[in-house]
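Why predict the complex rather than its parts? Because the way molecules touch one another can change local conformation, and only a joint prediction can capture that. The input here totals 830 residues.
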Amino acid sequence: MVFSSLTFIFYFLPIVLGIYFIVPFKLKNLVLFIASMLFYFFGEPKYAILMLISIASTYIHGILMEKYEKHAKKFMISSIVISIGLLMFFKYTDFFILNINSIFNVDIGLLKFALPIGISFYTFQMISYIIDVYRKEAKAQKSFLKLATYVALFPQLVAGPIVRYTTIEKELDDRKHSFDEFSNGVRRFVIGLSKKILIANVLGDCINKFNLSDEKSVLFYWIYAIAVTLQIYFDFSGYSDMAIGLGKMLGFKFPENFNYPYIAKSVTDFWRRWHMTLSSCFRDYVYIPLGGNRVSKLKWFRNILVVWFLTGFWHGAAWNFILWGLLYGVLLIIEKVGLLKILEKVPSFISRVYLLLVVMIGFVLFNGESMSQIFENIGGLVGTGNVPLVTTESIFYLKNYASIFIIGFIAATPLVKNLCVKLKEKAPKVVNVLEPVVLTTLLVVCVSFLVDGSFNPFLYFRF
Amino acid sequence: MSERIKDVVVTVLFLVIIFGVFIISTIVKDKEVSTAERRKLNQFPNISESLMSGNLTDDMENYAMDQFLARDNMRSIKTFVKLNVLLQKENNGLFTIEDKIFKLEYPLNESSVTGISNKINNIYDTYLTENNNVYYTIVPDKNYFLEDKGEYIKLDYQKIEDLMRQTINSNIEYIDIFDTLALDSYYNTDTHWKQESIMNVADKISTQMNFRDRITTEFELKEYGEFYGAYYGQLGKNMTPDTINYLTNEVIDSAVTFNYETQKEAKVYNTQKADTAMDKYDIYLSGATALIEIRNEKATTDKELIIFRDSFGSSIAPLFTEAYSKIYLVDTRYIAPTLISNYIEFNNQDVLFLYSTLIINNSGSLK
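Output of the joint prediction:
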């Protein structure tokens, strides 16, 4: 099930909220756990048990680590091996088989398992929990229900943000519910839903049109590249907004995941603003344990490349994801050895264009189905393959999606947010009247798009 | 409004909407069909079956979409937002110019065009000889008549004609009807042509096929009623309905149709069926069917005509009634060509292949 569906908004959510707010506090975690399992079961019945087994393994290892402190490291490694083993088996086995077949010219059969939804996310959360317990930054959770609620919590289960156990440890025991938090949650949820339905899905439709077209042109390649860049951002950040909003409704404070990444002036800055919960996890659980930057320059670069190889590989079991990660690793190294200083000195227009071009090329790489298609899509931007500059078709689609591009460009900056803040300072009562009107209108419009069965993919299901 | 009151209002509004829709949807009886969209609506899924097949999420969402409260109004909101707020050029692939609805049909699928030629050639090779007068014609969809200002994309109709000329058996003669039609020949809210506007087409075909002189009785125009076409339902926008008319005379009135699928006879213009049908266009030969025959008891000839056709054939075939003792209409979307000989004895019939560019560009739907 996805948040941007009628089933979730008008069936699942009212039932869960109704029961959740009726039952006494001591039963709220149980309600959330059952709801989360149903949420998962609804879309992926056979893998619900796999998730429960993973949680049970992490739970037992956590308890054992505290009980047998001398062997804590062994238990930590054992837990991580099990978690990563399951992830590797279900997500990466076919990738390795394909590569072995290709290199050694053999024909090993593929397993062709469907990817368990959210496995990359919940595996990361369980590893972060077990490492935090090992580091004594968190106490092992004695209640299986609470640990299972943390891992399976439906707002963040399938696409993050990656919530660390320490972030919501206290909220699992005690959390407050208020109109203030609930209405903030509604606002975030509706904004996220709008990003997803009104921008990302419409751009997804544009990308489909490009993929189906036999009349590519330089203009169409650019439309595609910009559409992909905006779609991925609005799809993922929209989903994160919805997750954070749902968390607030239920009394949880999830970490922010995006901070207007497209206004960054360098790749270094971009990754401080994009998928922040993932970046911080890789920093704290991989980069720093490897020695971070407090090692020789060569090892420092190695550490960066290891982290970005893993970041790419985490996103998908395919070479384009690995190359996408390594592209950022290399760019970060180049920035650290000198480019960053140059970028700080040049006019911000230039550094922004640099960043946007790099990110756009990165997402064309990220979004490609095959390497040949990726090279074609990147080459098409500069007119390779003898494609015309424009075609009637590309002009038509440019006009058709022009408003969405403009809305996307504006919404990717803090302009609207800053305007709202200023307006609220000057006329708070007006803003307070407008807010419910705008949110209700957006909700109704989003629902109207869903009712008409609009294109509604969910990009991060594959991670 | 204070911050506190605003928070309460936002919370209450949200809860009222999600709980309200949930409760009303649970209470209100599910609808069987959508008149506007002319289709059966999804019903509540069998949970265990959907779960076992792994389709529970999709089945439930399809049900929720189809049975959503005030679905038609919600679809209108979406259409309004897309066309008037976001200023997009199309919604669900449909766009309007003044009071006419058009559907984007793009790009040209060349393999589909050669595909339909091959299918026509196969039928010719299997059933027809030099004793048959065999013709084909291409019905342009109404986008052909859009002024070419580069505003909208449309098929390369010249290329379709050229491809078909190059690939169809040279014994099959082409009848070019493009210049006998105009934008007003088509319904505003539907894909089809209006029967009262295709007399020129009928003239051109009958002249080229040498049966024009056997049509002598004048036609009388009769109004059937309001007609909301297929595009109307797909677009989800309030528009003025079309009027559906039919051309008849004493020959057509006395003729009967025999439907090989239902094994039933009916009038050429089946007003009884159209009264209850979701698609009023079913008035012509009772709508889509695999094989139907028009029997003209008053015929002064024993000549027969076989029309391999799509839905455009339903409204033009009655205009040929007087010229033949029997007209067979074969729709190979619903019957495999290999089965036709079970029902039609091929001898020296006239034969016409009549397909619209919409089918020609999507010929995978033909068997």
